[in-house]
Each structure stands twice: as structure tokens, then as C-alpha cells.
Amino acid sequence: MAYRWKNTLTAADITPPGVYLNRRQIMAGLAGAGVASLAGPAVAVEDLTPNSWDDITNYNNFYEFGTGKEDPANNAGALTTAPWSVTIDGMVERPGAYDMQDILSKMTIEERIYRLRCVEAWSMVVPWNGFELADLLALAGVRPEARFVAFETLYRPEEMPGVRYPVLDWPYVEGLRLDEALHPLTIMATGLYGKPLPNQNGAPLRLVVPWKYGFKSIKSVVRITLSDTQPPTSWNKSLPREYGFYSNVNPTVDHPRWSQASERKIGGGLFASKVPTLMFNGYEREVSALYDGMDLVRNF
Amino acid sequence: MMAWIWSGTSDPMIARLNTLLRHIPVWAVYIVGALPAPVWFYLGVTGGLGVEPIKALEHELGRLALQFLVLGLLVTPLRRYAGLNLLRFRRSLGLLAFYYVCLHLLVWLVLDVQVPQQIWADILKRPYISIGMAGFVLMIPLAVTSNNRSVRRLGAMWRRLHRLVYVIAVLGALHFAMLVKGLQFEPFVYVLFVLLLLMMRLRIFGFFFGLGVRRPGGVGESG
Questions:
Q1: pLDDT digits (tens, 9 = 90+) for B29-60
Q2: How far is B52 from chain A (nearest CA, A)?
Q3: Minimal-distance CA residue of chain B relative to A260
Q4: CA–CA separation, A299 vs B6, rounded Å?
Q5: Structural domains of chain A, with CATH
Q6: With a cut of 0.90, is the ipTM above it?
Q7: Around A149, how many Cα atoms within 13 Å sit in the side-chain half-sphere?
Q8: Closest CA to A11 of A130, A99, A160, A161
Q9: In chain B, what residues touch A272 (CB-CB under 8 Å)?
Q10: Is the peptide bond before A144 cis (omega within 30 degrees of 0)?
């Protein structure tokens, strides 16, 4: 079931490609509170201007293609994204390899204009196309004992020059609690600005969890595993003091090496000013109930 | 101070190179060395540094500072082990390193952090910034005493004072290595390079590797 969550602008408002490259003003954001049945955008509406195609496709962290921000744009061209299949296994009714074309034929693609906040204190606004992760998981049938979802990125050294270096323990892995994974804001993106997802942005299929730091939104996913134990995650394995399992965007909990209170919006040039970071990246209304009673300083 | 005693080396290639170097005026090194800063700034303003020019400019200026520090540290080993004489340029290399550290700091303060309260918090709370800041502070006395008058006035003290550059280079390389996410290649090249250049100054290094030393008699330069 698609359209559980609504931008105030949705698929109906998609502008022809020539126009949105001019950075039109887009109204998007908090309305709907994650419940599509709520009629009309009665609550706060915010101006979200998506970053340009150039911004979004030339400033990426995808260490499998190098640690420089432009390395993915320069090196990801060689990545073969078709054919592609995603293995869904673990605590599911129908484990197996799901072909990308089959998945797409069963999903409804919608546009989601989300803020993206990197743990490095920069941010963008991205007009994703994709479907809810909940719908993909429903294909495989989540068994009742499952509590967590683990994700794995493709590991293909011959097409990924960055994995020659032990920057991280390859392959890249991430994880969510099942309720986070099933939240209507959590999507699997397949496109950008109505076009197929560029390789440097995680083609052909990537996770997008807009209230968490960007590294949680794992790219080029090849495996999804349901389990009853919290799965390991790459950055947490590498530096547990700096990157927690949750990694929710939180301006009051600093990274040990830098402040998370503010962020720089990409695209403002050399004299761009900083803006305050929002709790849960501005999706507090939608997701804070997931963490009721939790100490967010300890569970960073 | 004893560069004038220096008369040459047995290697004709190096000797030719030394002659060539004698014809390069020091002011040219200052100009060519300082040029990247305005070029990078211009690129940043005009979109040539990608979609996030602030970090790009800040990192490039920091990288240039480290590179000039490493070049400065190369002068003595190159002279001692290869017979190449760059001593005339050492002051300019050091001052250019200081110039880039100042610009790097300025970009960080004015364009990057912006919020004054956060600047102090960052310097005190964030080890990699504390370390970078310590490196900058230690460079100030060296820059101030880099003129001929100070060299004369301070005498032996001057040389001892300027050994601070060893500490500064280590702090600079550490500052870089501590700032990156994950185990990245580039900062460790600088750390390794700086450590290697410092090791080459140890007497024990000369003992083990000193067979090939091309050292002109009477030159006791230890910097």
C-alpha cells in the first residue's frame, strides 16, 4: 500500500524535468503526520527547495568508490546495476532472491521530498522516487518473531575501487529496528527527480530513513535479513564511541569530534551560513513515538 | 648559517642542480608558493570547488600548510644524504606554511564555524581542533623570529627555538589524521612522512644509514 505518508506536494505536482532543474520552490514537509487518513495539510507547512540534480549527484559519501565527495560521481559509472536481485532472508515466510524487475512490477513508485542530514553536519533536500520498505518486506512476509532488519551493500571489488582500502570492514552493513523499518517514512528509493537513481546515489535500490544520519540509508542493497537480534552496523563496528546503532538526527547530542547543533545546506556557495539542525531532522512529529521512554543520549 | 662553506658534491647531476637553484631568487618562491591561495579562493567563489566549496577550500589550505611543513623538513635530509642544497629557501618554506595555516584558520573561523561561542567550545572540546590550534600557536614565535635580526640576536637559542617545527609538523599531521572518518589513506601518508623525516634527524639513523652521507666537511648544520 503506497501513499501512507504525504508530502504537501506529491506525484500530482511533479514538474516536467526542465523546470525542476531551476530549483522551483517546493512546499513539503510535516503535514499528514505519517497518517494518510488525516485529511488535508492542516499543520505547519514548510518551504523545502530540493537541491539541484548537480548538487545531489556530485557530493556523495559512498566509500566503496572512494572517500572523496566527488569520487562516487567519478568512479561509480562502471557499476553494473542490471540485472540486480535482492536476497530477502532470515525470519520471513518466503525467503529467496527477489529480482529487481519483479519487485518494481509489484510496487507503486511515489515521490518523497525529504531532508537528508549527513553525520558530517551538512544537509540537502532530495526529491526521491521509491516505495515504502514495508511494502517490500510484505512481499517476503515478515514472521512474527522478527524484531530487526539488517541490510547489506553490494561488494564487488572489480567495480568498486574504494574497497581496496580498509576504510571500513566491507561489505557495508546497516540495520533498523523492525518498527523503524515499517514506518511509512522509511522508503527504498529507486529514482531521483523522476529519473533512475544514479549509481553514485546507490543504484538501483537504496534505503532512505530521513530522520537518521545519512549513513544509515544504505546504498545499492543486495541483502535484507530479518532477525530477532540487533544486527551489526558498519560505522558502529568501526567507531562505536562515535556512531551508535540508532543514529537519529539529534542537535542536542554532539558527535565526539564535532557539534551536531547546526548544519550547512549544500548549494549555498562559499559564503553559505549555517542553519540549526532539527530534532529527528524535522520529522519529530512523525517518529518521536518510536523512541518514547528511551534515553536518546545513551542510545545515540 | 654555514651555507657559504658549501662548495659542492661529487655527483655532477646534483652539482648542476645546485647551480641552477642558486639562480632562483627567493622572492620567486614566495610568489609561486603563495599563488595557490588566491587561485583556490577564486575557484571557490566561482563554483570551481564543487557544491561544498567551504570545506574544499579549508581542506586544501590545510593540506598546503602541511605540504610546506614537509618541504621545510626535507631541506636538511636532502642536503645531508643527497647533497642537494635548498637551505636558501627554507625560511620561505616555513613562512609559506605559516601563511597557509593562517588562511586555513581564517576560513574555519569565518566561513565554516561562524558561531563565535562554538569556536571556543570546539577548540577546548574537540581534540583534533585543540591539536591543530596548538600547532598554530607554536608557529607564531617561529614566524616572528624568522628575520635575520632575530637569528643574530638569539644565536644558539634561535636554533633550539626553531626545533619546535618538529612538534608542529607532528601536530599538523595528527590534526589531519584525527579529523577524517574511518581509516583513510591520505592523512597517514603525511603522518608517516613527517615521522620518517624526524627519524632521519636522529643520530642513530645516521649511524645505520650514514654510509651514503654526502656531507661536506665542516658543515654542522643540524636544523
A1: 999 999 999 999 999 999 899 999 999 999 99
A2: 6
A3: B118
A4: 65
A5: 11-291 (3.90.420.10)
A6: no
A7: 30
A8: A130
A9: 54
A10: no
